[in-house]
Amino acid sequence: MTTTQERLTPQPPSWLGIPPFPEAVKEELAKAEQRKNLRHATGTIRTKRLLRAAEVDNWEELRTAAAEIKDRVGRHLDTYLVQAEKAMTEAGVTVHWARDGAEANRIVAEIAKAKGVDEVVKIKSMVTQEIDLNEALEQEGIAAWETDLAELIVQLGHDLPSHILVPAIHRNRSEVREIFTTEMGTYGTPAPEGISDDPGELTNAARAHLREKFLRSKMAVSGGNFIVAETGTLVIVESEGNGRMCLTLPETLVSVVGIEKILPTIEDLEVFLKLLPRSSTAERMNPYTSLWTGVTPGDGPQDLHVVLLDNGRSNVLADPVGRAALRCIRCSACLNVCPVYERVGGHAYGSMYPGPIGAILGPQLRGLEEERDRALPFASTLCGACNEVCPVRIPFTDILVHLRNKVVDYKTSKHPTIEQGLMKGAAWVMKDGTHLSSAQTATRTAGRIFKDKWLGPMPIPLAERWLQARDVEPPPTETFRQWWKKNREGENR
Amino acid sequence: MSAREEVLSRIRKATTDVKTVDPALDVPVHWTYGRALATTDVLGDFVEKVEDYKARVVRVASDGVGDAIVDALRELGATSTVLPDGIPDGWAESLSAAGVEIHRDEPQLTHAQLNVIDAVVTTAAVGMADSGTIALDHGPGQGRRALSLLPDRHVCVVRSDQVVSDVPEGIARLAPALRARHPVTWLSGGSATSDIELSRVEGVHGPRHLWVILVD
């Protein structure tokens, strides 16, 4: 392929262009419209989720069961994967394994080429975002069309997703209208002339735009919410029916699924199909759930493939504290409840997994080699709201603290830092009363020098930036110990 | 080493701390499967929850189904419908008598043909009251999956003995079909999206209208 060849699908920006979290937030926080959109959206869904969870008497019991089932799967993943592979193969599915994203992308592209297709329709899938499948297919001359409404808004908007469930949550209706009127016509059926910003009208435009693609596409690519190991059943949970279209109409279906998505038995579905919709869209049940077990002659795709993807998941599994992150069922309740996410939005996290789950999953999947991943465990106030809403009881704050520790270890293993020196000094001071008194002699002296003068900006390493925005009282000329000696010692109380 | 062997060996290395071989002994699951809810009026709950999704529900006696389907199609503005194999002859006769154009899936209709048929009439496998969910196992009367997907209006006939209180009972009823590798589709209202400002819009790609006939 030559560099001058025209693109088939809208060019997205790259995650790599986003600076580490502490830098990125500055820009994101300045986007007033985005903050307004996010406050409205997360507020609405938080209230609804509470209502739907409260309707279920044994909600807490369900959460415990879900956590236990997922832990069971994680701790015995090799057994369940082999079982699932066998069941799927017997049902007529071709099972592929992929060590990483590049390998999975290659497998999907090869299937497409073998089928002679130059376009695929896609069901919204986090895992194909994770491996950047669309761009890999574009490079191979295959157009990947997103069919979920929010993903369509993101794709046509040359944008990046900012939420696990509602990737275009940062966009309001008039922005969507603008994107549809300018972009739809370039890639298929255009938006109707004079379309308003009414969500119903916009949705109808998407229906017409995509119907054409559904009816002509020969191949679809999906993710998967669950694979039942016992039967090899795949489950996809969705709202719009674009999923059913992709799972039913094309001749070939490739599902790329993370290895942690296994459930042991059919019966386990009852736990997750109660928890997931109420936690994600805050509905009693999502409009459509599709379950299929291999090829059904005369019904749906006759050529089924499943790509079981590792891409860092086995690294997550290797950490007994961090592995609880693999319980995640991508509901996004932790995003909606997070005070940090609500204000900065999804893009600042620098990956398709934003919010609390992104802060614990991203650095574990990708490792700590890059600065953006080392910054993520700190993108939290540790308020713990995510712990409370998580339907699979992921202990977010425990994992965040654990990862902060790992980040510090990583940094100090490279070179000792000023903080480390200060902490060492503080440890020496605190270790012994006599050490403390000698340190206090120094602070008293400083106090006498400054007298009543407040401390402003000063060129002291580390403290310098802190003092830029704050004034501090001078150190006291008398320590508490001296005061006690003078005023209290010897009193019989 | 193949990708399969490598991924499995990574997983085994990552879980060397797991000493108990039997998954059920290693991590017990504190859950009783297949339990019913204590709902007193299961059918009433089912109707309420399905209507909550803006779907229409009518309740009829078993001899009134044919007429109820005719009424549904008329009100939905449908003049043509596809009927899957296994739909009772009596229903088809009511539809013909009312002048509805009937399409059969024999030989299989193309997607383009299905796309321009106004409606589909199906039976169902299970109804789950608490979540207002109808499950199709695509057995007789329900047709292959494309039939209940491409036409814009879905009239679904559910027998009251098919309705259970909640999802766990529903899964228990569907388990044999799933183990027999039947595809299964759950419908909870018509298709919907909340992708623009989280404001719910009914009707995207799936049938935009779901009409449920509950047979007492």
Automatic annotation (TrEMBL), chain A:
Superkingdom of origin: Bacteria
4Fe-4S ferredoxin-type domain span: 325-394
Keyword 4Fe-4S appears in the UniProt entry: yes
GO molecular function: 4 iron, 4 sulfur cluster binding; metal ion binding
Protein's name according to its UniProt entry: L-lactate dehydrogenase complex protein LldF
SUPFAM superfamilies: 4Fe-4S ferredoxins (SSF54862), NagB/RpiA/CoA transferase-like (SSF100950)
GO biological process, one term: lactate metabolic process
Transmembrane segments: none
Domain LUD: 83-309
UniProtKB keywords: 4Fe-4S, Electron transport, Iron, Iron-sulfur, Metal-binding, Repeat, Transport
Domain Lactate utilization protein B C-terminal: 405-487
Automatic annotation (TrEMBL), chain B:
Name the UniProt record assigns to this protein: L-lactate dehydrogenase complex protein LldG
Organism: Tessaracoccus bendigoensis DSM 12906
InterPro entries on file: FTHF_cligase-like_sf (IPR024185), LUD_dom (IPR003741), NagB/RpiA_transferase-like (IPR037171)
Domain LUD: 46-215
Domain of life assignment: Bacteria
